[in-house]
Design goal:
Elements: E1 10-12, E2 15-17, E3 24-28, H1 36-49, E4 53-57, H2 61-64, H3 67-73, E5 78-82, H4 86-95, E6 99-102, H5 112-122, E7 125-131, H6 137-143, H7 148-164, E8 170-175, H8 179-192, E9 198-199, H9 207-223, E10 229-230, H10 239-251, E11 259-263, H11 274-285, E12 292-297, H12 303-309, E13 312-316, E14 320-325, E15 328-334, H13 338-350
Parallel strand pairs: 3-4, 3-10, 4-5, 5-6, 6-7, 7-8, 9-10, 11-12, 12-13
Antiparallel strand pairs: 1-2, 13-14, 14-15
Helix pairs in contact: 1-3, 1-10, 4-5, 6-7, 7-8, 8-9, 9-10, 11-13
């Protein structure tokens, strides 16, 4: 792990991004923003799962006009995602959003002035969201496609344009669905600028494909000290993204939230239904916020050692197993007792009720 690169600090509402702050986890709602109630409910669920910044799509004026209601109900800072129409950015700022994402590939530079003026008045952070799927045509022609260098040039000249207007409340993303391109773009930009970076692999797919692409792209950059906030893109419910995002941060020892379950891959020595045990434990512990290492092991080879290293663990045998806490063997359990006892012990340790 390399030391994190020093970047400028910006604020999205009460969440600091960059400037040495913890890597912030964010996501984007999948609801129709015009349905303020559904969008607010999804933001609430995202927050419960560990999201710290919420972004919402603003496709038209109707969506823009309900942003004040969404912001009022939201427990998270709200970013308005704007494409094509600068008037929607102005209305979103007027409605009280905490940040704006604009795409230089589809909002002309001559439209930036009004957005910047309004953002200055309201102290709204602007994310320059560079995307390989919507780069400026002249850059696509110059580089022969959405290369890493094309993404970087788009970002740098947009930054220069904002700075020329006296605006520096900026964070930047350089996203591509191609992981090597995304990695190269962030590396190149990071070497040339100290603005905070929002990491992500765009259009990453369903949960499995997204976990693979995001762990490689986001994880590798974070390990190199690059990145200040992350979004794991998943097709479907954005609540799913939190598991992957926090898993990446925990694996790199950057941040911790909730339980980490360690379980063996199983083999011919396993004499309990370990898969069912792990799935039930994962489901019932999902709401916990306390960092906790939970080992669920299926045999006596590595089981006792791994369970002993965890905060709490069970090493199973035929129809029974041993409960461990903080490296100490506590007592023998019947297989039917594994989950009830595990949940009860975790509640004692954390003060949080599992299975809710």
């Amino acid at each position: 792990m390399k030391e994190r690169k020093a970047t400028r600090a910006v604020h999205v509402g009460d969440v600091q991004v960059g400037g040495g702050a913890p890597v912030a986890v964010q996501s984007m709602t999948s609801t129709d923003t015009r349905d303020a109630a559904a969008t607010s409910d999804q933001i609430r669920r995202m927050a419960e799962a560990g999201c710290e910044i919420a972004r919402v799509a603003v496709p038209d004026r109707e969506a823009a006009l309900v942003l004040s209601e969404i912001c009022r109900k939201s427990v998270l800072p709200v970013i308005a995602d704007i494409h094509f129409d600068d008037r929607l950015a102005l209305e979103a700022i007027n409605q009280g959003v905490h940040g704006i994402r604009i795409n230089p590939g589809n909002i002309p530079k001559d439209k930036f002035k009004g957005i910047v003026s309004a953002a200055k008045v309201r102290d709204v952070c602007i994310r320059l969201g560079i995307n390989g799927g919507s780069l400026e045509k002249n850059l696509l022609e110059k580089y022969g496609g959405p290369t890493a260098s094309a993404l970087v040039e788009s970002a740098l000249r947009s930054v220069d344009h904002l700075e020329d207007m006296g605006f520096g409340n900026i964070k930047v993303s350089l996203k591509s669905s191609d992981v090597p391109t995304m990695i190269d773009a962030y590396r190149e930009f990071s070497a040339k600028s100290d603005y905070p970076l929002h990491l992500g692999v765009t259009e990453a797919g369903t949960i499995l494909q997204s976990a693979i692409k995001s762990s490689l792209g986001i994880g590798l950059l974070l390990a190199e000290g690059i990145g200040d906030t992350i979004r794991v893109s998943v097709t479907g419910d954005p609540v799913q993204e939190m598991t992957v995002a926090w898993g990446i941060l925990r694996a790199l020892k950057l941040r911790e939230r909730g339980p980490e379950i360690i379980s063996c891959p199983t083999c011919g020595r396993c004499e309990i239904d370990l898969l069912a045990l792990v799935e039930e434990a994962e489901r019932k512990l999902a709401s916990l916020k306390s960092p906790l290492k939970v080992a669920l092991m299926g045999c006596v080879v590595n089981g006792p050692g791994e369970a002993a290293e965890a905060d709490i663990g069970i090493a199973g045998g035929k129809g029974s197993g041993m409960l461990f806490k903080k490296g100490r063997m506590v007592r023998k359990l019947k297989e039917a007792e594994f989950i009830p006892v595990l949940l009860a012990e975790i509640e004692k340790m954390t003060g949080e009720i599992a299975g809710q």
